[in-house]
Amino acid sequence: MTELGRKERFLKVYANLPLSTREEIVYVLENKWPITWNVAYLEVSNDTEKGKVILDKLDELNFI
Asked: Which of 1, 11, 20, 41 is the right S-S partner for 5, CB 3.0 to 4.6 Å?
């Protein structure tokens, strides 16, 4: 799927999450940094390199 398609799917999933769930850890980046849905949203929205890695992993895990 294209980058735009993954980003759109992420945003759709994020928009439908309960507010309390957005604070939960969804992924641990490089075995060091826990990434919550809110952090993932910021990274993906700003099109950062970390955002691309997060999209890759969430897509691989079928979360989006």
From this structure: 1
